[in-house]
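Good morning N.,

You mentioned wanting to compare the apo and holo forms, so I went ahead and generated the holo version with copper (II) ion. This is what I fed in:
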Amino acid sequence: MHRTGELYGQFKTLEQQKETATLGMWIFLITEVMFFGGIMLAYALNRHFYYPAFAAGSNTLSLKLGGFNTVVLLASSFTMALAVWSSQVGKKTLISIFLLLTILLGFVFFGVKYVEYSQKFHHHLVPGKKFDIFYCVNNPASCPDVAADELMEESNLLDEAKAADPDLNAHAQLYYSAYFGMTGLHALHMVIGAGLLFWLLKGSLAGRFTPQWNTPVDIVGLYWHFVDIVWIYLFPLLYLIDRHK
Amino acid sequence: MSATAAAPVKTLPEHHYLNATYGIRSWLLTVDHKRIALLYLVSVTFFFFIGGFFAMLIRLHLLTPSGYLLSADTYNRMFTMHGVAMIFFFLIPSIPAVLGNFFIPLMIGAKDLAFPKINLLSWYVYVVGAAFTLYSMVSGGLDTGWTFYTPLSTIYSNSAVAPAVVGVFITGFSSILTGLNFLVTIHTMRAPGMTWFRLPMFVWAHYATSIVMILGTPVIAITLALAGMERLFGLGFFNPAMGGDPILFQHLFWFYSHPAVYIMILPAMGVISELIPTFARKQLFGYHFVAAASLAIAVIGFLVWTHHMFLTGQSTYAALAFSFLTFLVAIPSAVKTFNWVATLYGGSISFDTPMLYAFGFLGLFLIGGLTGLFLGCLGTDIHIHDTYFVVAHFHYIMVGGAIMGYLGGLHFWWPKMTGRMYPEWLARIAALILFVGFNLTFFPQFLLGYLGMPRRYHVYPPEFQVYNVMSTAGASILAIGYLLPMIYLTWAAFFGKVAGDNPWPATGLEWKTQSPPLTENFEVTPIVTWEPYDFHNRPDLGLDAVASNGVAPAHGDD
Amino acid sequence: MSEQEHSEHIVPPSTYLAIILTLLVLTGTTVGAAFVNLGRFNIVVALAIATVKATLVVLFFMHAKYSPKRTKLIILAGIFWLALLLGMTLSDYITRVDYRGVRFPISQVTQQLPAQRG
Ligand SMILES: [Cu+2]
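and this is what came out, ligand included:
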């Protein structure tokens, strides 16, 4: 199929082309909903059955880091929306600026995620043979990044959970399976999104996006907002279980 | 003098999609939906013969009660790889990715699918997934059954599970991309005048199939991803040692894999809905009902999945509900069957090869569908679950239904795809061989299962031998029935008689363009002014003689 | 095909600003609510707030409010099928009682399990 300007040969008009691309992206996002739905189901079941273990696991996460990342991601959605707006009104420099901001915020998110993951790794909170939810309580020297009073609190919390669920260490691994599975898949989507943003940035620096033709900005925007929505659910589901103790 | 009286010898058109460009690059980088369809045709045929090879080994092994050919462990790998190759790499892509890809744009009067590059991408995704799976097969194979049940697949199996899971996971995305492309294409690319209720039933069937593809396939993707991560990195959702539940895997797996049956059978139904009106020269009876039945099957198909799990210890109350919902699927299936039969009634039927496949489909799908009700019934399922009754049932649906539809469609559209005709009598004989071989292979398996022979065992009690011998004999005949079309269709593609634009004749838009079609399908975008399958008001088909001498019936106006 | 597609609706930045501020306030609210003991309703409140946030993103950031009916139908279909997956599977688990009258989950970990693969 040949391309005449921005119109691909299988289409008759630019409107038809844009309508088609947008429809395609929405349908793709529905497949993403079902994709995350499978792991949400695993989460929901296990949280229902092993609530004490999930509550204990959630309380070992850092609310500060999680909350900060939530704000970062919401902000990146905002800048993405503004990038789409800039392309609609034809402010070519602004498109690049907002895309760049979105990418930067995405990388801040990755950085925080990296800190969180490596903490969990050092604290023996990765499902598998080495998993030990009591690791930091029993080896405070190996967890210098956890303050003494926090550790005290954690110890009480875990003792309480252990009393409610003798298999706490097994079931807490299910919580961490959910944590790593869900945030890992979310991060993977962010990586893909970041790649798409770089591709957009390249196009916008070349001045390709105009009020008449900005479909790529629009549909990558849809994707980016969707990834944001996933996080909007992940944040309370993973970080905010039983925080009121 | 006599030479001038003879009909002019037909020749292929000068320009068409096959000779538009040459060279291996022009095929591997093509974005023409017709060429991509042929790429898929080659790949799925390859997997069909791999799967068939494993099937032959299984049948040979079961010739004697003690099984002389394969070790128990090898036998497990053979039936697993047979299932994986046939289901994920042949049946699911077969009709949609080959015939659907080729004909949906032609049928709706479009130049191509909405996303030609994504279409090509879907083929490459398929190839990458296939490569992983082939790697699993040659590096020892896998022995979990095609269902990958946990905890066998995640904790206990020593076979090459990981590459196969990765392969099937990847191939799922090819299916998603195809479904997405079809949905968007059918929505936005129809030619002027091609309203929703003028769409050929084949397109409706693919619309329904695409819904299943995009809503079901992501769930199997996440399921296999979780199982794979469990095997590789120790995630625990399906691991009883951590309090996880292996049955959850089955829930997620069948949420896709039951509807996946409709990914296989709905397109076949679409093909049959094209064949029957064409070769009965009569408008499809109850067009709206058949279209609605496709959508109903796609939706209700999502509500029945735990009928594969009645005996796993799932809740009795859930089982009751799911059993009831399973019976509901029979309604739209029956609606379709009755409408096909009503179309035949009073038609002027010709027994061309595609029609023979359509008749084969009708009979086999009927048996396959009705035996499904035995399995969906909670009481009888206790007796026949996990026996050869199940094996026979789903082979009647998938082989008797889906492959009959696929071969019927290939024969119907081969003249359009290649511009050439296959030898008709050879094809009719092959269709008969196939039908006989199929029934001889699988009917005895109903009896075996009813008598209590479990599936997936490499040995069996001696009293079952006679049925097993029948089945193996049938499989040999069946093999001939599959080899013949492959040989003569390939031959015909190069040396067959030139077919002309509309040899049957049929009413679809795809027959209004040349055979083989141009790269851009139509010289000018067609404008549709006629109703589907309306043989009476189509003077362009050259059927006036038939209509006026009273052969065609008067009640084609329903 | 449809004519309303022709005129693209441009959402002004002021709307986006209002939405992002609302989203941030709601994020604070959901964190605050998590520290109040509402018993079983903690999760209900958390999910309700998340759903409001998601709806705002879909309607305004993703322009669903200004999209053709077809887009809205697709979104609803996605929610419906997700509900099918979650709801119908849960219907098994919450009514599952085995022949001894034991409800799921049985404490599996204390049972002996066969050796794992080598
Ligand atoms: Cu089923």
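Chain A touches chain C through 53 residues (CB under 8 Å).

Happy to go through it together on a call whenever suits you.

Best,
F.
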